[in-house]
Predict the 3D structure of the following.
Amino acid sequence: MIKTIFQESNGTYGVDRICGELRKRGKIASYHRV
């Protein structure tokens, strides 16, 4: 799932972006895990 978000965002990342996208998609996301 994180890899997909990374690819969809043209290779950009960051805990805020990844957690936000995971939560939007209905997944539980922890800043410490990501």
In short: The chain has one domain: 1-34.
